[in-house]
Specification:
Elements lengths: L1 H15 L3 E7 L13 E4 L3 E4 L9 E7 L3 E2 L11 E4 L3 E11 L2 E9 L4 H4 L5 H17 L11 H6 L23
Parallel strand pairs: 4-8
Antiparallel strand pairs: 1-4, 2-7, 3-6, 5-6, 7-8
Length: about 180
């Protein structure tokens, strides 16, 4: 029993400690309707996002809560966009889908690879607090001007793909055994 309690504590800490909010603005169109609170998605490619929020320039914003990303500035690769990258085959839990003023924010929690199946059925109180904070920040961003370097064609192209699905809107399987949500 002690080992099981320790395992749960480790997974909780790996998931929720030292989270940073990253932003990825995109025009999702109908693909935005695929996201539902509580679902787990797997992104098969590298996931790029910015550490800068600013005003929302597109129809959708991914607010990604992560403690497992690489900051491009740390390796001298940032072009003032605040680029942060998460590994390919990253798992995310959809914590919230929030609409305000004609814009939609999809809040994603990046999950440790080893913990996604455990976290899939967990609704921790901390998630509700995170959603409250992220929604509040989104509401503030709706009043802000967009950050110019996050409205360039280059940046928007980098962030144009929907997360967790292919270009046709099919969700990626959660495992290589074709398990889907």
């Amino acid at each position: 029993m002690m080992e099981s309690k320790k395992t749960i504590e480790n997974m909780y800490n790996m998931t929720y400690e030292r989270l940073t909010m990253l932003y990825r603005d995109v025009d999702l169109g109908e693909y935005g309707k695929a996201y539902e609170k509580g679902m787990i998605i797997r992104e098969k490619t590298l996931t790029g996002a910015s550490r800068y929020g600013g005003g929302v320039f597109t129809t959708h914003r991914y607010a990604i809560l992560s403690n497992n990303y690489k900051d491009a500035a740390a390796i001298g690769q940032d072009r003032n966009e605040g680029l942060c990258v998460m590994n390919k085959d990253s798992y995310f839990k959809v914590l919230d889908v929030y609409n305000n003023q004609g814009k939609t924010q999809i809040t994603l929690l990046q999950l440790p690879e080893k913990a996604w199946e455990f976290i899939e059925n967990v609704n921790a109180d901390v998630e509700d607090k995170l959603v409250e904070h992220v929604r509040s920040r989104f509401d503030e961003c709706l009043e802000d001007e967009p950050i110019p370097m996050l409205t360039t064609d280059n940046w928007l192209e980098r962030c144009s793909s929907p997360l967790g699905m292919d270009e046709e809107g099919n969700l990626f399987p959660l495992s290589d055994e074709n398990k889907t949500y």
